[in-house]
C-alpha cells in the first residue's frame, strides 16, 4: 500500500520541479521580449459578462514563443495539435463543473523543446496554462497543468502594460481553475 503513495509523491515532486522550470522560462522569455521592445500594449476592446476582452495578448503570447526553442507552434486554429483539449482540464467555462474539460482550437498554443505544452486560455484573456508533461496524462490543473497570467508590476490581471507573468493564486476549494481542489500555484514556486 505504501508503494503507490510513494510513486504518487515522487511524481508530484517532479511536476512541481517542472512547474518551477516552466515558470522561470516564460518569465525570462517575457523579459527578453520587453528588452527587445517586442511586447505590445494591451488594449481593452470590450467587456463580456464582466470580463474584459483584450487586444494584443495573443500577439504577445506568439512573440514570447519566439524566445523558446519550439518543437511545434499552433497559431492557425489548430491548438488541439499542441494542447490536449479532450480529456484534459483547461478551465474551459463552457463545459460543466466540476471537470471543466476542453479548450478551443482557435486559441494559441505551442510546445517547447523541454516538452512543455503552452496554451493561451483565450486569445483575448490573460490566463496562460502550461502542461509540464506535454500530452501525457493526467492533464489535470494543479497536478501537471498550471495557471499563470499576464500582469503588470502591481500584479493586476487586466493590465494594459504587460511586464510580468505571475502564478495564479493558490486555489484550495474545487472550482474552474482547480477542479480537483488544493492547487498550490503560488506555494509550489516557493518550496
Describe the structure.
The protein has one domain. Helices cover 25% and strands 21% of the residues. The protein contains three helices and eight strands; from the N terminus they run αββαββββββα. The protein has helices at residues 2-35, 57-65, 187-190, and strands spanning 43-48, 51-55, 70-74, 109-112, 117-120, 127-131, 145-151, 164-167. Strand 5 (117-120) and strand 6 (127-131) form a beta hairpin. It is globular, with a radius of gyration of 16 Å. The mean pLDDT is 91.
Instruction: Work out the helix count.
Output: 3
The total tally of domains equals: 1
Q: Determine Rg (CA atoms, Å).
A: 16 Å
| SSE order | HEEHEEEEEEH
Largest sheet, spatial ordering of strands? 3-4-5-6-7-8
Mean pLDDT: 91
Distance between the termini: 27 Å
Beta-strand content: 15-25%
Strands, total number: 8
The dominant shape is globular
**Low-confidence runs:** none
Largest sheet: 6 strands, antiparallel
In short:
The protein is an alpha+beta fold and 191 residues long. 25% of the residues lie in helices and 21% in strands. 35% of the residues are buried.
Chain-wise SSE layout:
Blueprint: H1 2-35, E1 43-48, E2 51-55, H2 57-65, E3 70-74, E4 109-112, E5 117-120, E6 127-131, E7 145-151, E8 164-167, H3 187-190
Antiparallel strand pairs: 1-2, 3-4, 4-5, 5-6, 6-7, 7-8
List keywords for this structure.
191 residues; alpha+beta; 6-stranded antiparallel sheet; two-stranded antiparallel ribbon
Amino acid at each position: 500500500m505504501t508503494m503507490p503513495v510513494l510513486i504518487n509523491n515522487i511524481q508530484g515532486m517532479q511536476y512541481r520541479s517542472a512547474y518551477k522550470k516552466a515558470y522561470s522560462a516564460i518569465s525570462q522569455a517575457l523579459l527578453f521580449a520587453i528588452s527587445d521592445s517586442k511586447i505590445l500594449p494591451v488594449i481593452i476592446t470590450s467587456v463580456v459578462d464582466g470580463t474584459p476582452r483584450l487586444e494584443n495578448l495573443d500577439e504577445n503570447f506568439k512573440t514570447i514563443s519566439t524566445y523558446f526553442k519550439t518543437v511545434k507552434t499552433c497559431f492557425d486554429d489548430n491548438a488541439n495539435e499542441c494542447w490536449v483539449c479532450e480529456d484534459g482540464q483547461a478551465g474551459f467555462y463552457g463545459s460543466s463543473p466540476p471537470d471543466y474539460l476542453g479548450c478551443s482550437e482557435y486559441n494559441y498554443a505551442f510546445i517547447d523543446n523541454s516538452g512543455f505544452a503552452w496554451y493561451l486560455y483565450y486569445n483575448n484573456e490573460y490566463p496562460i496554462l502550461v502542461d509540464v508533461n506535454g500530452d501525457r496524462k493526467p492533464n489535470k490543473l494543479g497536478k501537471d497543468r498550471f495557471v499563470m497570467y499576464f500582469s503588470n508590476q502591481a500584479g493586476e490581471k487586466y493590465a494594459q502594460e504587460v511586464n510580468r507573468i505571475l502564478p495564479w493564486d493558490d486555489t484550495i476549494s474545487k472550482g474552474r481553475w482547480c477542479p480537483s481542489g488544493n492547487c498550490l500555484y503560488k506555494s509550489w514556486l516557493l518550496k
